[in-house]
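ESCALATION

Customer reports they have been waiting on this structure for their group meeting. Please prioritize. Original submission:
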Amino acid sequence: MTEQANLASRMAAVALRRPVTILMLSLSLLVMGLVSSRVLPLEMWPGIEIPQIDINVPYANATPAEVEDAITRPIEEALATLSGIKEMRSRSASDGAHITLQFDWSSNINAKSIEAREKLDSIRHLLPDDVERVFVYQFSTADMPVLTLRLSSQGDLSHAYDVLERELKRPLERIAGVSRVTLYGVEKPEVQVALDPARLRAMGLAPRQVVEMLTKANFQVAGGYIQNEQRRYLIQPQGNWADMAAIENTYLSPSIQLKDVATVILAKPELREGRHFDRTYAVGLDVFKESSANLVAVAEAVMAVVHEAESNPALDGIRLFVMEDQAQSVKDSLSGLTQAGLVGAALSALVLLLFLRNLSMTAVVVLSVPFSLCLTLAAMYFLDISLNILSLMGLMLAVGMLVDNAVVVVESIATERSRGLSGSQAVVKGVGRVALAMAAGTLTTAIVFLPNFFGAKIDVTVFLKHVSVAICLSLAASLLLAITLIPLLARRLAPAQAKIRDHVHYKGLLAWVLDRPKRMLAFFVVLAASTALPLSQLPSDDQFDGDGDRLFINMEAPGEFPVAMMEAEVDRMEEFLYANKDELGIRAVYSYYEPRYATSTLLLDPDTPLSRDELRKRLREGWPKMALVKTQLGWKNGGDSEVQITLQGPSTNRLLGLAEDLVPQLARIQGLVEVRADADQLAREIRIKPDPVRTNRLGLSARDIAEQVSLALRGSPARTLRDDNGETRVQLYVEKDARYDKAMLARLPVAQVDGRLIRLEQVAELVEAPQVGSIMRFDRQTTLYIAANLEELTLSQAREAIEQMMSNISLPAGYTWSLDGRFRRQNEGQQAMMVNMVLALALIYLVMAALFESVLMPVAILTAILFSMTGAFWAFWFTGTPMGIMGMIGLLILMGIVVNNGIVLVDRINQLRGSDELKRVIVTAAAERLRPILMTVATTVLGLVPLALGDTRVGGGGPNYAPMAIAIIGGLILSTLVSLVLVPLCYLMLDGLRARWNRVKTAALTRAGWQPG
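Update from on-call: job pushed to the front of the queue and completed.
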């Protein structure tokens, strides 16, 4: 008997000798697990550091070309020296620069963030002087808001900052577990200092002088210390403004105060974006929790404050709506998984009862599920692993496998009893008989996840690592219970004499197969080759079309327009949506708009009879013709969720020309809809070209003129006002109205020479010209994206059609194209999963070879994996399920499960070898293992049926679990049916091959004169 069998037998014997001890330990673990389920941190996602750094540089009222030259390129050059950069993307627009660095998942993102900040500090002097801040962000799943609220009212909420902060934001911040609350869509009022150009001229002051004097007048610095023998004092010179009167009374010269040349008022900043909810202006509010706080508890406390605020007289007329609720998503996911798990467990218990025909023994086997889960929860608590949608997914997948070891043990004990052994002897020997098979089966199931820890890391494998931890812990718990508690309960509750069926029909079939090895091998080769049929017709798709109860309508403007015009476009779309609200199954509509972009989020009625495809079709056919914007259906964040073609080359204008040619051709591809280029064809700019002769004669420089224009259009920050209400931004403006009138801009005073006022039009030419709305760069090359949505077309079909079209197009030298967006994500995911599956296959072989002390016999077991793939692909084909990431996860898990049947068979054949002729031994061993194999397969399959037939999604609104369950069910059924005859056949043929090899080797050595010693 092997070492594993001896150890398992000894543990079973200890359990029989110390039944009370084992029962008390088991009950203790059960209680510990129940307690852990209450105290385990409940999260939406585990704490995962996303390997991405975002750099945002606000720079208002600039041209994209100016931002690219002055900000984006210097930052790119500095950051390019960082090691491990996978991708660098940038966007230069009129409001500033945004640079995104994508690193490998193996990178230490905290260290990279610190290094990036150091690089940015080193080039800070190269950026424009009026760049106030450079923001560097890194993102973790723990940084996602717990709750996202929208507040709407029939009144004007744009002026309601103070009441919202006082009555809602601050009470939420005081909740235990809340780390911060952000309020947006309503701005805190700012102090606006409007300089009067005429008064400035009369007083002989230039606007830049006023800016410098205000900056010097509002300060706070540390001045050092003075100390005597008794005490030490900090010296802090202060010049802070305490109120608006202090600002107005600031002296600009011995006889001139600020109020003499400017008007100082408290007003709201200019609106740069807006929101609607149910066709009224809305404000957004995000609530974030502390990392150690319980998600559900924090969300419930927040909702209690929100409900209380709804009855607050100060907030009368304000409606609060929850847009995103992580706690509800987790609860929905937990509810769906629990419901599917309970149904699957009930079906599995029914199957066990039909097989065992004994209620007490069925109860013994079924008990392994709650005990294993509780032991797993306790282990997760001590290992500091949170309960999140990924670990819940792992526990759900493990439910159907948790009874496998218990079934094998109970069946083995029953077999020994049928041979006349006493209760204790049957238990010890029965456990020993199957110990190796259980250890190998558990290890091979767990080891398929090992490449996710050490292999190529992408988002799928990183998330799958957290799924695998829960699966591995639960399987280890089930193995421990199978050699301790289950044998003890089987000894106490099993019938005194078990009756084992002879399985005559199966024996006859297997004997017939073993007598016709070549013919049967040819049949199985044909069966394996049939995989090519579904594989060739199987579409490849990720199947994820956004949140389950939402649809997004994106509206992109071909330039930058006033916010009021974008709001009018949103109003037109909302009018159509609300006119057809009942017909389309819409509960409410939330819209967001800014100068170049708007989106409407349709909150759908879960009971709507319309399918998603039918809803899309009706929307496209019915929505109004928009004069200003292009409308398309999309996802919440666009980008990687769309089908994209990336064009790269040195010239933005040339890329625009290529896009104009390609968009109509792509639009002719059947199934590609809403094809559009990421370009602002109608964006305009006014270029100011100073006259060098005039400016030189007047003693002006181009920079002087630019600074004066910038001060008029952008304003200039004058630090902050600090009072009892906190900090208030102070902004200084000259000729603020020049932003709204080109003629007024031309008359803008830019200098005063010899008492004479010099206007902008006198020293410069103002030329209107087309403007690129934003300049995109990818890996430091100018880039333009062409995006589209799919309609009745899968990703694989779209890829084939686009590649065929682009193969007939010749791009200019230096210009390239590539597939991006969902294509890139799918490629990365499938390549990583394929590598991990190959590594898993190698690891499974290594484990079995080590456990069976044979390099040949594991090959018989590996045939089960081949036919599991055949079964899975046929299952995809029959159910019309495209091949996506969830399906590949199912294939990976399947590889670890299907070998269990072969392991059980081969292990029993090895145990009986030498007792009879090999064919009869194989038939006898296979017949003994038939029932436990069928039981374990049936419980696993039935445990997954609710997921395969249901609409349960990851996190409540993520990808569907169905493709994963379909892959496991289809592969497991076919591989089991095949393995019951193919594994014994392969074992027989491999044994014959080994015997022939030994004879050939011995004959060769004998001819060489070697004599065995």
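Sent to customer with the following note: Residues 688 and 766 are 5 Å apart (CA to CA).
Escalation resolved.
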